[in-house]
Amino acid sequence: MLTASQFYRYQPSKSSTYQPNGTKYNIRYGSGPVSGFLSEDSVSVGGLVVKHQTFAEVTNVKGLGPAFAVGQFDGILGMAFQSISVDDITPPFQNMLAQGLINEAVFAFYLSNEAAPPLPPLIKGELIIGGIDRKHYTGELHYVNLTSETYWETQADKLVIGDYTSTTKKVVLDTGTSILAGPTEEVKRIAKMVGAKPFPLQPSECESPSSALALSRSRSHLLACLAHGAADPLQTPSRARTWQSFPTSR
Predict the structure, then answer these.
(1) Correct CATH for 1-76 of 3.10.520.10, 2.60.120.10, 3.30.2290.10, 2.40.70.10
(2) Domain 82-180+215-250 belongs to what architecture?
(3) pTM score, two decimals?
(4) What is the largest CA-CA distance in the chain?
(5) Tens of pLDDT along 36-45?
(6) DSSP H helical ranges for the chain
(7) Once rounded to an integer, what is the mean pLDDT over residues 46-56?
(8) Average predicted confidence (pLDDT) for the chain
């Protein structure tokens, strides 16, 4: 059971820029459904203040599953495209571009290889908005085209694990998932190879083939998702979008 003291909570009565919306919404994540209603306010992310941002206030978090109950996060920030946004809400990243808060349609993630806090400042995980933190990698980033402006979806040349080569070509680059998703038989085979064990997202899924797979990672990678394109990527054909993964020794 979640208690109020576990998470920071949005309190509209304490905001002078809050605007009620009230539209009810429902969304289903891989772990299950959540619901609530929409509101509007100024949203601050790392010092960037996005004005008139519509967002969802979650009143039912049951569908977020055990990851939310034990995780050190208070909510979810969507970084994909408006085409898959519930109720066609403009995502914060697109609003940052439209409001001139950032000059480049670029964001990047650095994933720390530290297992637990406290972390020295230079090896904490980072979300960099409007650019790239080049101290986290060497060499050049390689560009690939998106196959769909929905998720960060692209075409893989191949996926090789040991002596096994997957037949799957379509991939989604996602920093916000805690599950391995894909064709059932391929996921089972990969899970067996890497020693993953079934982990039910909900109690009712204990015998379900859709149960998540718990994976342990032996090393960290730098993940950069870049949206190099026009000032308004939602209204113009996509140019090169980039994703690259670099092993890091930090």
Answers:
(1) 2.40.70.10
(2) Beta Barrel (2.40)
(3) 0.71
(4) 59
(5) 999 999 999 9
(6) 65-70, 92-98, 184-194
(7) 95
(8) 75
